[in-house]
Design goal:
The complex is a heterodimer of chains A (about 270) and B (about 230). Chain A is α/β, with parallel strands linked by helices and about 270 residues long. Chain A has 13 helices and 8 strands. The chains are: A alpha/beta (about 270), B alpha/beta (about 230).
């Protein structure tokens, strides 16, 4: 298949870009695709920690761009999931260490080698974001149902459109159905009404995300929590599967079936 | 207000109802393109759709120099010339002979400004404005979409938003007495017409409704439009 390069962005920090990148990369790799996740947050790298690969980094993206190493030398292969790779950011440099043209060249050099390239964008609308978006064909905009996040996402979508990106999809993250129902949180439809782009998935607020981040093991690899299932569905939609979006009420799974799954249903990967 | 690139550089001054672009003598006869790049970066937002009086300092300005000013500064910036103000009398003479609008102080210039404004066409924007977009135009502005929170519309005259207005609309920057704001679905926390500002929230009776607003008796008056 033709390589799809997807930037994961949001504008606002702390809405879950890195979590989304790690989980979708892992999920698609588990589906048999060859995937690389690029950490474009130079100077504030985190994707390696969330993916549990921080102690295996030798070279980074800047080393590749500056010619200190070859691209394959900087790619960190995940030993838990076949076909999953990380291209880490440099922690000791700043966003100015790379230009949009260099980033585009780097992304282009991955074409043909991978099925999916996910670029984890830094927060903000400055050069870091612009560089991350430069080489991408598609964008996933992550927003939480908060007014500030939605406004920043709106700004980011406007910029992506001005860069000529036509495939822009929305992930609404950290939704708390009980708060939406009580009117204390924006609903997904409110977010959709403002942002007016295609929704590709809704991820419920889930404590498992914090646990998995601290363990360095993307939820998608091992878990059956609501967030893990949401990432699985989003990955399916990215693959082109026709998976209907669930009603907000269905995000909150309760009762014996979930407990049963938690006891016996751990899927794939390590337990 | 004044924006300068440095001593003896291009300079921009706000003078009440218009902007004055001052071009020093040393730039005459040179390729202005290189000099103007950094200047335009600083001033592009201000000069866009602005009416400019162009000050030509020193002597010897000819047709080629004027063309260079237009090509290097005025066209890229999107500014329109209100009048030319050459310092040297000889330059003033040939420009007058060739039909250039020359700057003259007092009521004649005011009349020219007034006439210029009447000629400004309406601006129609055929899309929604996302957060961070800013539209600035001397005449009327019509947005065929929404104005999202964080987007701004500044109009010399009236603003019409066919969709939802959540961002900032400022109408009547030059002709406040005739200006109005119309929104298909009004949800903005602030509107401005001329020098009047009104703050609103979701408790207003007209929140989410189709409304028109204009200044009556010194206050912004809102009227719900019922089809």
């Amino acid at each position: 298949m033709e390589t799809r390069i997807i930037v994961v962005t949001s504008g606002k920090g702390g809405v879950g870009k890195t979590t989304v990148t790690a989980n979708l990369s892992a999920r698609l790799a588990m589906e048999g695709f060859k995937v690389v996740a690029i950490d474009a947050d130079i100077g504030l790298r985190n994707l390696d920690v969330v993916m549990g690969l921080e102690n295996r980094i030798v070279f980074n993206m800047i080393d590749v761009i500056e010619g200190a190493c070859k691209l394959p030398q900087a790619l960190v292969r995940d030993k838990r999931v076949d076909n999953l790779y990380l291209l880490p950011a440099a922690q000791t440099r700043t966003k100015d260490a790379v230009t949009s043209d260099q980033m585009k060249e780097l992304c282009d050099s991955l074409r043909g080698e991978f099925d999916f390239v996910f670029v984890d964008s830094p927060a903000g609308i400055e050069s870091g974001f612009r560089n991350a978006a430069a080489g991408a064909d598609e964008a996933l905009v992550v927003a939480t149902p908060e007014v500030s996040s939605v406004r920043d996402a709106d700004r980011i979508i406007g910029l992506l459109e001005s860069f000529g990106k036509t495939s822009i999809n929305l992930i609404v993250n950290r939704v708390r159905p009980e708060m939406v129902r009580s009117g204390k949180m924006l609903g997904v439809s409110d977010v959709m009404e403002i942002l007016a782009i295609d929704l590709i998935g809704i991820v419920p607020e889930d404590d498992s995300v914090v646990v998995s981040t601290n363990k360095g093991e993307p939820l998608a690899m091992t878990d059956v929590s609501p967030a893990a299932r949401a990432f699985e569905k989003i990955a399916g939609r990215i693959m082109g599967k026709d998976i209907p979006l669930r009603d907000i009420d269905d995000l909150e799974e309760k009762g014996f079936l979930v407990n049963f799954r938690k006891l016996f249903g751990r899927r794939g990967g390590r337990s | 207000m004044a924006i300068k690139g440095g001593k003896e550089d291009l300079e921009l001054r706000g003078e009440g109802e218009h902007v004055r672009l001052i071009i020093p003598q040393r730039l005459r006869g040179k390729d202005l393109r290189l000099e103007s790049e950094s200047f335009l970066e600083k001033t592009s937002g201000i000069l866009k759709d602005a009416s400019v009086v162009v000050d030509l300092k020193g002597s010897g300005w000819d047709r080629g120099d004027i063309l260079s000013v237009v090509e290097s500064i005025l066209l890229p910036a999107g500014a329109s010339v209100l009048s030319w103000s050459p310092e040297e009398e000889d330059v003033r003479s040939w420009m007058k002979r060739e039909g250039f609008a020359l700057y003259c102080s007092g009521t004649e210039e005011k009349a020219r400004i007034q006439q210029h404004r009447l000629l400004v066409e309406s601006l129609v924007v055929e899309e929604s404005l996302r957060s961070g977009r800013k539209i600035d135009h001397d005449g009327d502005i019509m947005i065929l979409g929404n104005v999202n929170e964080g987007a701004e519309v500044f109009a010399g005259r009236s603003v019409v938003v066919v969709g939802r207005l959540r961002g900032l609309a400022h109408a009547g920057l030059t002709r406040s007495e005739e200006a109005f704001i119309v929104s298909g679905q009004f949800e903005a926390s602030q509107v401005r017409i001329g020098d009047r500002i009104s703050y609103m929230d979701e408790h207003c009776a007209w929140w989410g409704k189709t409304v028109s607003m204009k200044v009556v008796g010194g206050s912004i008056v809102v009227r719900e439009i019922v089809p």
